[in-house]
Specification:
Rossmann fold, 284 residues, alpha/beta, 12 helices, six-stranded parallel β-sheet
């Protein structure tokens, strides 16, 4: 199969140099991108935030799957060698559809890595999962956790206000703490969980407020680092790892709307400045 002038079906030097595609409904997936860049410094990345249609968490599964297929089609046209779904909602409802539509493209979601990390972190087996309405209603984390650890107790809670707080950059302060207390403080009081999965890639930037709400004894699980390990292992299995390099741009950013806002809020997620001119606006 020829994509962007390169035969991506061959395990060649050219295919190894292709970028890894990463997509999310908006800016939250940058937490996954950051972990990927730290784990795989030799790789190139192409990140797409579907900012014109966020949030995905309140959309129907049919709509989210359609968005994910459109996003993947664009990234495939740009010649990515592997795809990371840096969105829990899209992973939950569209992973199978993407793997079926692109059988020659390795696809990694964030739910299985997060579930594995939670099972390893919990001593009591009482595990909380917070996410969007769609992620919690779908029960994907619960199924994955119970497959790995059948005796576990899984308690889910949707936190719909967390995504707009994160997208606005309101990650600390009184508002974030009050919302976190309402969502996760009550979850901890009701269940006695010892581990809490941040089941949305937007949520790690609210880490401080969430940790304050549940107390220091509860371990927070962010699937970003575990996902980066999964991606590394898949690159090795597929024999498409990039060779170490000393120069060149490591990441390119695409968004479907609001380049200036993407750069401003994305700087908080990446812990480094992004410029508006670094963000290419695209249509899906």
């Amino acid at each position: 199969m020829v994509v962007a002038g390169v035969d991506v079906t061959q395990k060649s030097t050219e295919s190894c140099l292709l970028p890894i595609g990463v997509f999310d409904s908006g800016i939250g997936g940058l937490t996954v991108l950051k972990a990927l860049m730290e784990r795989l410094p030799q790789e190139r990345f192409l990140y797409l935030g579907d900012t014109a249609r966020l949030p995905y968490g309140s959309k129907s599964a049919r709509s989210v799957t359609r968005y994910a297929l459109q996003t993947t089609a664009l990234l495939r046209q740009r010649g990515v060698k592997l795809l990371v779904i840096a969105c829990n909602t899209a992973t939950a409802v569209s992973l199978d559809a993407l793997q079926g539509a692109y059988p020659d493209l390795p696809v990694v979601g964030v739910i299985r890595p997060g579930a594995l990390a939670a099972c390893q972190a919990s001593a009591s087996g009482k595990i909380g999962v917070i996410g969007t309405e769609s992620t919690i209603a779908g029960g994907s984390y619960e199924r994955e956790i119970l497959n790995m650890r059948p005796e576990a107790q899984v308690f889910g809670r949707s936190c719909p206000l967390f995504v707009p707080l994160a997208e606005e950059g309101w990650c600390t302060g009184q508002i974030a703490r009050l919302v976190a207390e309402q969502y996760v403080g009550t979850l901890y009081a009701e269940t006695g969980i010892d581990t809490l999965v941040l089941g949305c890639t937007h949520f790690p930037v609210l880490h401080q407020a969430i940790q304050h709400a549940v107390g220091p004894e509860v371990r927070l699980v962010d699937s970003a680092r575990t996902t980066a390990d999964f991606v590394h292992d898949m690159l090795v299995r597929q024999d498409i790892c990039a060779a170490p390099r000393s120069q060149g741009r490591q990441v390119s950013f695409l968004a479907t709307d609001g380049g200036e806002r993407f750069a401003r809020v994305g700087s908080l997620f990446m812990d480094q400045p992004l410029r508006t001119e670094d963000v290419e606006l695209v249509d899906l």
